[in-house]
Amino acid sequence: MHLFHFELSQFFSLSRFLMFKLKPSACRSLIRLGCLGWSLFVLFGTAASTSFASGCEDLHYVPPKMGDWRDKSNQIVMEFVDRYAKRYPEWGSTQGLDEFDTAISLPDRRENGQRQRWLKTQRAWARKKRFEQNKAGNGGVAYDLKLLMKWIDLEIEQCEINANEKPVTIYGGAFSLFESLAPLANPSGPQHRKDALIVRLDRYIHGDSSQKNQRSWVDAAIQTIEWQLNRNYRVLAAKEQIQSILDAAAPSLEAIEAFLVSTGVEERLWRGNFQTLTQQVDRYSAFLTKTVLPKARSYQRVSERRYNFMLRQQGVDASAEELIRLSNEHFPIVFADFQALAKGIQEKYRLESANPRDVVAFLEK
User: Fold this and answer.
1) What are phi and psi of 66, to 5 degrees?
2) Percentage of residues of the chain with pLDDT beyond 70
3) How many whole angstroms separate alpha carbon 91 and alpha carbon 88?
4) Is the Cα dihedral 255, 260, 263, 267 positive or negative?
5) DSSP state, 264?
6) How far apart are CA 144 and CA 132, in angstroms?
7) Residue 213: predicted pLDDT
8) pTM exceeds 0.85
9) Which of 41, 60, 125, 196 has a Cα-to-Cα distance from 96 of 20 to 30 A?
10) Cβ–Cβ contacts within 10 Å for residue 350, how many?
11) Integer Cα distance of 330 and 339 in angstroms
């Protein structure tokens, strides 16, 4: 019932009221982000950009004088993009950097420690750049770099939490491979990117001959999880989360096969690899089902430290306790708004009930 789409959206938009009641800093910071010379949303996506916004209120941003500071900002951000893409080539492909299209990264038991060390070097690089820009009087560029450093700090903290809690890494299996191949399968994209899809898939299946320990993506994932389990890492993922990975395997394989067909490359050149991939995905699913799923929890719960971190990652400065207090304080106000809107919709469409739950059910039909 598309007729009711606007009213349903309006009804649910009231639930966002609580978020904006927390602290206005995240909202104001996002407005300030619109003045930056580089596009953080393009660089890291919405989630990372909102985590940049967290805590921006205390940065005392002053709009820079017009000039070439935006060009300088873009130049620095492209340098960081190149650094990031060299470590995570699949991410580089999502940014349209086709020089990374055939490269792959594999699951690795050392990834958390290596990422933490790498991030610290990037923070030192950003700090040095910021010092140079401040010295040169480029306040706008220096502010951009401070935002970048705040994001890096959050990423480092996540590594520290992982090192402390030792969660078993649950890889997405076929869905993860689907996500890494999708940027190369754009029907309107150039043929050389579609050809790169064939090469990347081959490396996921057979390993990268340029790497010291050549192995398939699935073998790397299973070996990493086994190593973690043998050292008393804990399966913190809920059964529901693992089951969703298992359920996504078949449709992900179907999508990958459609990608391969769309490349225009002769089927004989990729059909064998796809069959091998299907067998590998089945083996990974069987491993998750037999070894990991029984150890998973029946509930989704995270530690207080990780929960507070996740809030800050999304640009919410308040602690869990503050959220609870604000929710209790503002729920009567929000619910009253729900009731008033529900009453209006009931009268408009002559519904039997004005109960918000019944109205939502009606609008969702």
Assistant:
1) -65, 145
2) 82
3) 6
4) negative
5) -
6) 13
7) 77
8) no
9) 125
10) 6
11) 14
- Measured in whole angstroms, how far is the alpha carbon of residue 102 from the centre of its chain? 22
pLDDT, the chain, mean = 83
For residue 112, give every residue at least 6 positions away whose Cβ sits within 8 Å of its Cβ, in sequence order, or none: 159, 162, 163
- Give the pair of three-digit tokens for residue 47: 């989630």
In this structure, are residues 29 and 312 in contact, taking their beta carbons and an 8 Å threshold? Answer: no
Query: Which residue matches tokens 């069959």?
Result: 275
172 Cβ neighbours under 8 A, 6+ residues apart: 179, 245, 248
How far apart are alpha carbons 365 and 352 in whole angstroms? 15
Q: Distance between CA atoms of 319 and 304, rounded to whole angstroms?
A: 9
Give me the residue label for tokens 């729920």. 331
**Position of tokens 């990958």?**
256
Rounded Cα–Cα distance for residues 38 and 79 (Å)? 12
Q: How far apart are CA 302 and CA 307, in angstroms?
A: 6
Of the chain, the end-to-end C-alpha distance in Å amounts to 6
pLDDT in tens, 313-359: 888 888 888 988 988 999 899 889 989 999 999 999 999 999 988 98
Please name the residue that has the structure tokens 């529901």. Answer: 240
Largest Cα–Cα separation, the chain? 70
Q: Which amino acid is at 323?
A: L
Closest CA relative to residue 193, chosen from 274, 262, 251: 262
Distance CA 92, CA 85 (A): 4
